[in-house]
Amino acid sequence: MAAAPVQEVIENELKRHKIKRKSDVIELYLAKEGLTEVPDLSRFKQLQYLWLNHNKIKTINSLKMNRCLKELYLQNNLLLDLAGSLKHLTSLQILLLHNNRLTKVEKTVAELKTMTWLHTLNIFNNPLTQDKDYRLYVIYHLPSVQLLDRQYVHQKEREAALDLCNQDRMRVRQSLAFGQRIQTNLLKQKVSKRSGSAHPSWMSVVPRQKGILKHSKQIMLTVSSSSSERVTSKIEVVQRVNQKSMMEHSILDWSKVPNAQQKRQGDELTEPSQIITQFR
């Protein structure tokens, strides 16, 4: 009994647009018709734009043959679940699902993963949006989406979603967090604890001059808890930085250097130049 009015609505739409062949149907407007289910539209295989919004639809099970759909409007219905109903619509670019009753974000997103062309998605005003980090979860699992719930997806959100949902990257971040960038004196304490001595062996090599020690305290190092070889490499860097460089300066009193006339008269340099060596 309920199917006849729906088919009648479809036929009226075709007549209104003067469409005689089913293959010519590219768009179909069935909004605000009081529908409780999606009608059988399998005969419209070239259908690309479909409006089913503002009805009372609870389930979707009649769109499996409409693989050419690019835009699907299902907002303001009574949808409870999407499992097995949309994953075959791989050409979808715009999907509006807001103001429904979808409760499980994992199942909903899993149904949309095959839509690699999907760039606009609305799921706001569904119970599932109350889940913590819902937006980041959707951004991570649906990377093609550029406009989510009427807000553009920014690069910072994509990075945050990657940190949240990518477990491998999260473990790397956690391991790096254990070895924060710290001052050299903290590095000395860590090396001292591992070596079991009061002072690590490399400290005897580093000159204990005031200027050099002050400079060494400004060097930032990363301590890794996973490998002792990394600690050794950082220590070698400190040693190379702290190595002394030598400069030589010559000091000469020009008042005691003979001029050309004195040289002709045979006068010699009364005092040799002095060479000063400076370590830095």
What tags apply to this protein structure?
11 strands, elongated, 280 residues, 9 helices
If you had to describe this structure to a student in words, what would you say it looks like?
- The chain starts with a helix and ends with a strand.
- It has helices at residues 3-16, 105-112, 134-141, 155-165, 167-178, 184-195, 210-217, 228-242, 260-264, and strands spanning 27-29, 49-51, 71-73, 94-96, 120-122, 147-148, 151-152, 181-183, 220-222, 246-251, 274-279.
- It is α/β, with parallel strands linked by helices and 280 residues long.
- The chain is 33% helix and 13% strand.
- The chain contains nine helices and eleven strands.
- The longest helix has 15 residues, at 228-242.
- The radius of gyration is 38 Å and the shape is elongated.
- The strands form three sheets. A seven-stranded mixed beta sheet has the order 1-2-3-4-5-6-7, with no helix packed on it.
- Residues 181-192 and 197-227 have low confidence and may be disordered.
